[in-house]
Amino acid sequence: MVTLAEVARHAGVSASTVSYVLSGKRSISAPTRERVEHSIKELGYHPNAGARALASSRSNIIALMVPLRTDMYVPVMMEIAIAVATTARSHGYDVLLLTGEEGPAAVRRVTGSGLADAMIVMDVELEDERLPLLHAARQPTVLIGLPADTVGLTCVDLDFTATGALCAEHLAELGHREIAVVGEAPAVYERHTGFAERTLEGLRRRAGELGVRLLHRACEGSYESMDGTLSRIFDERPGTTAFVVQNEAAIDPLLSLLRRQGRAVPEDVSVVAVCPEQVATQASVRLTSVAIPAQEMGRRAVELAVAKLAGGAPEEQVTLLAPELTVRSSSGRAPGAP
Amino acid sequence: MVTLAEVARHAGVSASTVSYVLSGKRSISAPTRERVEHSIKELGYHPNAGARALASSRSNIIALMVPLRTDMYVPVMMEIAIAVATTARSHGYDVLLLTGEEGPAAVRRVTGSGLADAMIVMDVELEDERLPLLHAARQPTVLIGLPADTVGLTCVDLDFTATGALCAEHLAELGHREIAVVGEAPAVYERHTGFAERTLEGLRRRAGELGVRLLHRACEGSYESMDGTLSRIFDERPGTTAFVVQNEAAIDPLLSLLRRQGRAVPEDVSVVAVCPEQVATQASVRLTSVAIPAQEMGRRAVELAVAKLAGGAPEEQVTLLAPELTVRSSSGRAPGAP
DNA sequence: GCCGGGCGTCGAAGCGCTTCGACGACTATG
DNA sequence: CATAGTCGTCGAAGCGCTTCGACGCCCGGC
């Protein structure tokens, strides 16, 4: 274990000089710097993280809280997590992975121990029990997702309301008058994770404005559940000609079951999905979809956190990413439409 | 920021006493302990992670290196990552998330800086470039996956060779004589990640022993690719009556395309998958499958790492988890079989 | 009644780094 | 030519914790 002192001795300078070479916080003459850098390389020196954290009260670590559940939108989460890790590294930070399991206790532990300099919290619920603690902590925090009350918080999320509206518009333009929304699993609504509700709200409002009828049904991501949901939808609204799906796991079952029922996509029914690009392009039909910009969300979250750490960011800031609808092969003019 | 010294003053004891109360490394009388614990609670004290790491040269952090690619077996990885995080917490460790992006440099950085006490590496390639560094590091390391040479390494993995053999046996018993293997994407084989090859090897060997013909084709997880693969398989071996799939993303396309071609599962063709339980039970047909025990792998990896840290584990230890085949509704007797 | 040995507690010495003030050696300025 | 300012470097003081040796104290044994 090479220490800074050994590097200093090897280079014939004092410890503080080595430190300043490393941090660049004071000017160092070129020859000295080179000598020090050479010694560092030659000895294979790596600063000790603990000592550095203790002395500077900065750990250069960003904590990321991911939900414990592995049953939902996993690819999205993973993509966010990886984007967070990658972006954090590019800013000189490492990422500490916390699971929701510990709940608020994890927040307390991390902020209390100085383990991390900032915190990124995923899967925020509308009335999240971690919020009060996050408020109290002097640690910069960024939420991915939107709680009910965003006062004093920094949040990043896809603008799901606009997403819903966008889907409604697209389908209305194509002449559809009866749209069915296949939502997330009931559990998602029960947890009040916000995004599902917001999509629905956007859909409802815009559909209302455009005179389109909307039917919403929650749905698990299995074939059985999709089968039931589908029957109920067509029983209740036989004139349904379009679907909006927000549950990744439900997409394949939906397409598959529609096909089995002899309903062609997009000739008989149109389908618009809210899902990651990859899912949309790899489904059995190339799906018209609004992408969930997971990478972008992760990246933004880190950048906001870093900005807050540098003191250059406003206290409160809600970043809603504008949705983009990509037309592919699953949506077309409504059957009876002109 | 409450410090240990303040707790000590508040409780009327010395700092070392508080430290010993916290660590339990020396006996403390009950009244003193209670007084200290009470002060800790009252002041809301949390030990500073950096100071602790510096003084004890233990960070209580386990580093987890996950592959950067988000294109493959993502749910499995996520499940492993979460199991690692959860298990680590239950042993008093936090988890640092590293992406493969930095490659060997990340290993050097983490081991050099004392950021983590141990390291868990996922997605190990047969001739992984990180291996020499991991060997050199005095940090305990556990690999999830099997490199070509395991000398001196601790590894955890599903026994994919046995998995392949198990699939072959199951299908042979049902009377199938021609089996097609739908493998991972070509990129997986190019990276030499081992597990795909090992499954194939197990399949080949056992199939050979049982007199069953085997055809292997790599396949991307898309419908187009699956479509092509399927045609080529039936062109080459029209008598194929069974499939083994190891690519999660290929499962839905496979089932869907078979159905479209009018081949019933399991009446005309049987399908056996190697995938997480959840995928097997949520597909359009409940799949006979060998589960990938992601949680178990994550848990084991952490436990091995912790054991190594405690000094109670052998240097070299390869843990191969025995595969279990669960018969569901996608496999049945071969059409012509007695 | 005296001595050896636990047991419980304390003081002090670091762990390796950052950072602040100080200080010598220059350069620019009037 | 004296003086103020700048630049590059150093020394020392911690950051908050762990841990080792030391030191009373009280107990039991003879």
UniProtKB/TrEMBL annotation, chains A, B:
<keyword id="KW-0805">Transcription regulation</keyword>
<feature type="domain" description="HTH cro/C1-type">
    <location>
        <begin position="3"/>
        <end position="32"/>
    </location>
</feature>
<dbReference type="InterPro" id="IPR046335">
    <property type="entry name" value="LacI/GalR-like_sensor"/>
</dbReference>
<feature type="domain" description="HTH lacI-type">
    <location>
        <begin position="2"/>
        <end position="56"/>
    </location>
</feature>
<dbReference type="InterPro" id="IPR001387">
    <property type="entry name" value="Cro/C1-type_HTH"/>
</dbReference>
<keyword id="KW-0804">Transcription</keyword>
<dbReference type="GO" id="GO:0003700">
    <property type="term" value="F:DNA-binding transcription factor activity"/>
</dbReference>
<keyword id="KW-0238">DNA-binding</keyword>
<dbReference type="Pfam" id="PF00356">
    <property type="entry name" value="LacI"/>
</dbReference>
<dbReference type="InterPro" id="IPR028082">
    <property type="entry name" value="Peripla_BP_I"/>
</dbReference>
<dbReference type="InterPro" id="IPR000843">
    <property type="entry name" value="HTH_LacI"/>
</dbReference>
<dbReference type="Pfam" id="PF13377">
    <property type="entry name" value="Peripla_BP_3"/>
</dbReference>
<dbReference type="InterPro" id="IPR010982">
    <property type="entry name" value="Lambda_DNA-bd_dom_sf"/>
</dbReference>
<protein>
    <submittedName>
        <fullName>LacI family transcriptional regulator</fullName>
    </submittedName>
</protein>
<dbReference type="GO" id="GO:0000976">
    <property type="term" value="F:transcription cis-regulatory region binding"/>
</dbReference>
